TrEMBL record:
<dbReference type="Pfam" id="PF05551">
    <property type="entry name" value="zf-His_Me_endon"/>
</dbReference>
<protein>
    <recommendedName>
        <fullName>Zinc-binding loop region of homing endonuclease domain-containing protein</fullName>
    </recommendedName>
</protein>
<dbReference type="InterPro" id="IPR044930">
    <property type="entry name" value="Homing_endonuclease_His-Me"/>
</dbReference>
<dbReference type="InterPro" id="IPR044925">
    <property type="entry name" value="His-Me_finger_sf"/>
</dbReference>
<dbReference type="InterPro" id="IPR008704">
    <property type="entry name" value="Endonuclease_Zinc-binding_loop"/>
</dbReference>
<feature type="domain" description="Zinc-binding loop region of homing endonuclease">
    <location>
        <begin position="72"/>
        <end position="106"/>
    </location>
</feature>
Length: 121
């Protein structure tokens, strides 16, 4: 049995935010600026799947990186960055929110059942 005492995701974001914040934010904003602006405010990357980036020796989804760097949040491996707009290619920090994997599943269910997300806007 392996016991994990340190969450590697939290530790990595901690290092990014405390030691490399300026560079990380420059990366985040360059992705945001390159994205296409949709009528609903989404900023969509020109990729089929959510784009990833490599930073400080780690590969991470662009939207997760952008949310954490812009808001200076250290997300743990248990925490997911959710899309309130249900557009997984969106990198607009205003459309992203931190939650659990269960929240993410419920979002999908509510979206499927009602076509809307009650806490959106
Ligand atoms: Zn969006």
């Amino acid at each position: 049995m392996i016991l994990v005492f340190e969450d590697e995701s939290e530790a990595w974001f901690g290092e990014v935010i405390s030691d490399h914040l300026e560079e990380a934010q420059a990366r985040a904003f360059s992705i945001i600026e390159a994205a296409r602006k949709e009528d609903n405010g989404c900023l969509t990357t020109a990729t089929v799947r959510p784009s990833k980036l490599r930073f400080l020796g780690r590969q991470v989804e662009a939207y997760r990186f952008i949310y954490c760097v812009v808001n200076q949040v250290t997300a743990s491996t248990q925490q997911v960055v959710r899309h309130r707009c249900h557009n997984r290619l969106c990198v607009n920090p205003d459309h992203l929110v931190l939650g659990s994997q269960a929240d993410n599943k419920q979002d999908d269910w509510l979206h499927w059942a009602y076509g809307t997300d009650p806490d959106y806007l």
